[in-house]
Amino acid sequence: KAGVTQTPRYLIKTRGQQVTLSCSPISGHRSVSWYQQTPGQGLQFLFEYFSETQRNKGNFPGRFSGRQFSNSRSEMNVSTLELGDSALYLCASSSLAGGDNEQFFGPGTRLTVL
Amino acid sequence: DAKTTQPPSMDCAEGRAANLPCNHSTISGNEYVYWYRQIHSQGPQYIIHGLKNNETNEMASLIITEDRKSSTLILPHATLRDTAVYYCIARTSYAGNMLTFGGGTRLMVKP
Question: Do B44 and A99 touch (CB under 8 A)?
Fold first, then answer.
């Protein structure tokens, strides 16, 4: 079974631009969560989607948004990029909406904002 | 989710058992203890989780104290490939799949 895939793996943008990152969960998984990892703040939760509905949202500005499609693939968008948005963006998938289950992480997308 | 506290770093000799402690003194009855690890610049990898009882799988063992205020992850025979940051996370079973990561423990396995 293929793992979680994220595209692109690396991205360079300039301040003020917007970016869209994609995550394809493990086949059959309906939950997708997104995380931001920076050296200063560590791993921080962005949001979670289950069956196309956002279930949880972390403490990030409205510039960060996401969505999930009917095939469970998810995208996250960051508008008006700032230098501080440079980070490793990770997504994780799970078969369940919560409860006693594990999550599987993708390799991440490394975003650099110049 | 309850806050967890872990030592920032630990060393372990290759072939020896690595015992990684985690304090979660405010954990509630419906919170599981999860362990993930992250090898440099890769996505975190699930290791093991438990609620009350000790758990063992092919990767590790999880020992939870009777009062559930602390736990220990045991890697029985550490290898160089076990060098990673290990995260202990307390998570409720009904609040979705959100994980709250702390600083973790950076385990260095040395030859």
Answer: no
Instruction: Kindly provide the residue ranges of all beta strands, DSSP E only, lying in B31-104, ordered along the sequence.
Output: 31-38, 45-50, 55-56, 61-64, 70-75, 84-92
Decide the pairing of beta strands A19-24 and A74-78.
Answer: antiparallel
pLDDT band at A101 (very low <50, low <70, confident <90, very high): confident
Half-sphere exposure (Cβ direction) of A72: Cα atoms closer than 13 Å: 20
- State the smallest CA–CA distance between residue B100 and chain A in angstroms: 7
Chain A residues whose CB is inside 8 A of the B42 CB are 107-108
Task: State the Cα–Cα distance between residues B26 and B97, nearest whole angstrom.
Answer: 20
Q: How confident is the model at residue B1 (pLDDT cuts 50, 70, 90)?
A: confident
**Are A98 and B96 in contact (CB < 8 Å)?**
yes
| pLDDT for B93 beyond 80 | no
What confidence tier does A95 reach under pLDDT thresholds 50, 70, 90?
confident
Q: Which of A20, A16, A50 is nearest to A33 (CA)?
A: A50
- Give the count of Cβ contacts less than 8 A between chain A and B: 70
Chain B hits for A58, CB-CB cut-off 8 Å, are 98
Question: Could you say which of B94, B98, B103 has the minimum Cβ distance to residue A48?
Answer: B98
Which member of A48, A50, A98 has the closest CB to residue B93? A98
pLDDT band for B7, please (50, 70, 90 cuts): very high
